[in-house]
């Protein structure tokens, strides 16, 4: 499993690991690059305890592409049992029907199984062209003409023999490894039920969050917040139990509030992520944006239009921060 | 000329007409510019109140070419309030700043005044009129101009003049020169003796004889000579320039503030100046509050007594709120003019903006101006509705528009 960018929501990783546990996985290897292990270290310790699983790291010292890290972690991935192993992309959010995937993999006797998902604009991604119902024929990267509407969802179940195909160098799994397996007619694809979102871009992250909250509403509504007392909640809102919400607020729809956040009175939040330790001061309004850990949004301030505030950013009182034609990077104050 | 207790003074305030003050749109679409509120009072109210301080003031005339009915109510109300007769005189057509004065000379001279003040309605200053009169009496000329030093870079937007440092005589005058003449400019406030009428009459009759040395526009050149009305006389070019250096005109320099209210953005700036002047001259006009029973008030703020402000709102500095406006909980107002019947809902923010009559600002929304941006101050015309959470930045919104998406740097028709 690979960690890509610094602000990937820790809750997503937890969801993935929980899904893995539910499918019978007992050991997880986090494949990370050289940049920010410390962010993950703390969460990992928590999850190990909470979920009673073994979580280790495999850290690349040079870029190895999308397949190389698997070769790097080879020793951790293979044991004598010869059982297949999951590979998950952490920039993805979906429902993780992993038990079904194990069954699918067994039924087809495949060497490698991948999840695919149906999208409206496939040419943004790599399209997976299927032969019969489930066998993969080829991959077409960002096609100009329509060749299919299923794309690689970033979830794989691979037999250990796949590792024999991967050299320890920068390799792309979609461009080099999978096409080879497909040509040998040993690659099968399962269509992912439910929602799927690539959350690499802030805008898509927020869309994915909306989809995820919608999924919770249907399957685990107890995790969502309901109005109580003076504060008003609209639509799907998830808030950590240690978060404090003031009076005369209007929260939601589609809001996630992290641990230890303080939302002062008269605040409006919608379509946004508020990470751990954030303080949103009185009368502010945050919409369609991500507020990073330990940041502050000043009183009467307005954060809008896919703004991303990194860690420890302080928006002064009564200012407007928004993205206009080009994205702006806000320096740490 | 000794000052006699019988000597009466008359003031004339030029208010212009619909073809003037077009830069003030959209705010002047519904109301004549002279009646637009600055610091809670109609623009023309400020020079009128200043005239009240002139000793032996007999009459105030408002001269312009708006319809009479537009000023009828205001004029009768202000006459009652100030206990000074105020009359609106309508020009049938524009006569120019001096021509207008001349056109009504009989009425103006009715009280046989010894001195006549001429003020432009859209001037924002401290109007040191009694001091100007006293100085004028000493100088003994036919007129005295109020002048002020400005920054050399901005001087060429105005009438630049040169004055004798000892006698204060006006030596040279030129309107909007191309090259730098002087950093002393004409404020648009004058005091004259009745000889001014003779001077204006002489200009009209000499017009045909004098060669026109300034550049004329193509439009003017194509007019047959008879169509240039003899009675269109501009004070600056036609009176001040020729009379400069002839020991007829003098200057009085003010060290206080001075601005011209040409654009809606300037009205916000001038509102600030007059509000700070109230702090010194009539502090009872300003609002105060500490958030317990009434809203928190910071700096100079005017709130009409009929306006309703929630105690959790925070108002100021430099805010004027007109009659029957409603300001909801948690609202923040900074540097703005809120006109009659406006409703501002919870937690909204208005800063560097003018919100027109009957407009509404939704919950958590913002009307915000940015001074050095292209359009500057945000102006909402009358009956504009800004929906919840919408942000309007540096934009001008014409009347009756509903905004349901955020806008920036735009003119919304």
TrEMBL record, chain A:
Coiled coil spans: none
CDD domains: M1P_guanylylT_B_like_N
Top-level enzyme category: transferase
Chaperone keyword on record: no
Keyword Nucleotidyltransferase: yes
Ranges for domain Nucleotidyl transferase: 15-212
SUPFAM superfamilies attached to this UniProt entry: Nucleotide-diphospho-sugar transferases
The enzyme's E.C. designation: 2.7.7.13
Residue ranges occupied by any Mannose-1-phosphate guanyltransferase C-terminal domain in the UniProt entry: 233-322
Pathway: Nucleotide-sugar biosynthesis; GDP-alpha-D-mannose biosynthesis; GDP-alpha-D-mannose from alpha-D-mannose 1-phosphate (GTP route): step 1/1
Name of the molecule in the record: mannose-1-phosphate guanylyltransferase
Protein's organism: Brassica rapa subsp. trilocularis
Annotated gene: A03p065030.1_BraROA
Automatic annotation (TrEMBL), chain B:
Domain (Mannose-1-phosphate guanyltransferase C-terminal) ranges: 297-412
SUPFAM superfamilies with a match to the protein in the record: Nucleotide-diphospho-sugar transferases
Domain Nucleotidyl transferase residue range list: 11-209
Gene3D superfamilies, per database record: Hexapeptide repeat proteins (2.160.10.10), Spore Coat Polysaccharide Biosynthesis Protein SpsA, Chain A (3.90.550.10)
InterPro entries: GMPPB_C (IPR056729), Mannose-1P_guanyltransferase (IPR050486), NTP_transferase_dom (IPR005835), Nucleotide-diphossugar_trans (IPR029044)
Top-level taxon: Eukaryota
Family under the similarity heading: Belongs to the transferase hexapeptide repeat family.
Descriptive protein name: Nucleotidyl transferase domain-containing protein
């Amino acid at each position: 499993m690979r960690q890509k960018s610094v602000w990937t929501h820790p809750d997503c990783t937890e969801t993935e690991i929980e899904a893995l546990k539910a499918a019978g996985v007992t050991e997880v290897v986090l494949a990370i690059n050289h940049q920010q292990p410390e962010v993950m270290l703390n969460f990992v310790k928590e999850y190990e305890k909470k979920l009673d699983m073994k979580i280790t790291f495999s850290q690349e010292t040079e870029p190895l592409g999308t397949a190389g890290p698997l070769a790097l972690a080879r020793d951790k991935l293979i044991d004598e049992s010869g059982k297949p192993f999951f590979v998950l992309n952490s920039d993805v959010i979906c429902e993780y029907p992993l038990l079904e995937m194990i069954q699918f993999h067994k039924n087809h006797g495949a060497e490698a199984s991948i999840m695919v998902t149906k999208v409206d604009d496939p040419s943004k991604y790599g399209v997976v062209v299927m032969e019969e119902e489930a066998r993969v024929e080829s991959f077409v990267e960002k096609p100009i003409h329509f060749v299919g509407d299923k794309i690689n969802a970033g979830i794989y179940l691979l037999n250990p023999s796949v590792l024999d195909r991967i050299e320890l160098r920068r390799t792309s799994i979609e461009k080099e490894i999978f096409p080879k397996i497909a040509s040998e007619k040993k690659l099968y694809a399962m269509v992912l039920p439910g929602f799927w979102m690539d959350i690499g871009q802030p805008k898509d992250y927020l869309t994915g969050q909306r989809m995820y909250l919608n999924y919770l509403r249907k399957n685990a509504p107890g995790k969502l917040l309901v109005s109580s007392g003076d504060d008003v909640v609209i639509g799907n809102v998830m808030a950590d139990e240690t978060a404090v919400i003031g009076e005369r607020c209007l929260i939601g729809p589609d809001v996630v509030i992290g641990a230890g956040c303080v939302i002062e009175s008269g605040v409006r939040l919608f379509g946004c992520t508020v990470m751990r330790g954030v303080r949103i001061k009185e009368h502010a309004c945050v919409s369609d944006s991500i507020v990073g850990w330990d940041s502050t949004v000043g009183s009467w301030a307005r954060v809008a239009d896919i703004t991303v505030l990194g860690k420890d950013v302080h928006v002064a009182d009564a200012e407007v921060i928004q993205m206009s034609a080009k994205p702006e990077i806000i320096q740490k104050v | 000329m000794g000052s006699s207790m019988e000597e009466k003074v008359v003031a004339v305030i030029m208010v212009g007409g619909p073809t003037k003050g077009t830069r003030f749109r959209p705010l002047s679409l519904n109301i004549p510019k002279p009646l637009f509120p600055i610091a809670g009072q109609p623009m023309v109210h400020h020079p009128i109140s200043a005239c009240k301080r002139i000793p032996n003031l007999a009459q105030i005339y408002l001269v312009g070419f708006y319809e009479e009915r537009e000023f009828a109510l205001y004029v009768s109300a202000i006459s009652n309030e100030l206990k000074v007769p105020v009359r609106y005189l309508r020009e049938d057509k524009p006569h120019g700043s001096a021509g207008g004065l001349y056109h009504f000379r009989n009425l103006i001279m009715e009280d046989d005044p010894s001195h006549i003040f001429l003020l432009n309605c859209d001037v924002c200053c401290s109007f040191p009129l009694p001091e100007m009169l006293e100085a004028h009496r000493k100088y003994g000329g036919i007129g005295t101009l109020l002048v002020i030093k400005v920054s050399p870079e901005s001087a060429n937007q105005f009438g630049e003049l040169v004055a004798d440092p000892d006698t204060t005589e006006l030596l040279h005058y030129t309107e909007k020169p191309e090259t730098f003449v002087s950093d002393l400019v004409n404020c648009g406030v004058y005091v004259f003796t009745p000889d001014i009428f003779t001077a204006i009459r002489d200009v009209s009759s000499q017009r045909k004889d004098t060669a026109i040395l300034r550049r004329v526009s193509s439009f003017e050149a194509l007019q047959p000579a008879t169509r240039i009305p003899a009675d269109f006389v501009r004070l600056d070019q036609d009176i001040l320039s020729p009379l400069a250096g002839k020991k007829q005109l003098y200057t009085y320099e003010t060290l206080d503030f001075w601005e011209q209210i040409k654009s809606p953005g300037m009205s916000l700036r001038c509102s600030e100046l007059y509000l700070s002047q109230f702090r010194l001259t009539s502090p009872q006009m300003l609002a105060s509050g500490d958030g317990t029973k009434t809203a928190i008030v910071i700096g100079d703020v005017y709130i009409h007594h009929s306006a309703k402000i929630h105690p959790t709102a925070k108002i100021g500095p430099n805010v004027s709120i007109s009659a029957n406006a409603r300001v909801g909980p948690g609202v923040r107002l900074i540097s703005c003019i809120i006109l009659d019947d406006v409703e501002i809902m919870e937690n909204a923010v208005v800063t560097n903006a003018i919100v027109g009559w009957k407009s509404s600002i939704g919950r958590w929304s913002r009307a915000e101006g940015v001074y050095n941006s292209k359009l500057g101050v945000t102006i909402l015309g009358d009956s504009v509705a800004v929906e919840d959470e919408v942000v309007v930045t540096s934009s001008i919104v014409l009347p009756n528009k509903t905004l349901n998406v955020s806008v920036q740097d735009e003119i919304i028709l």
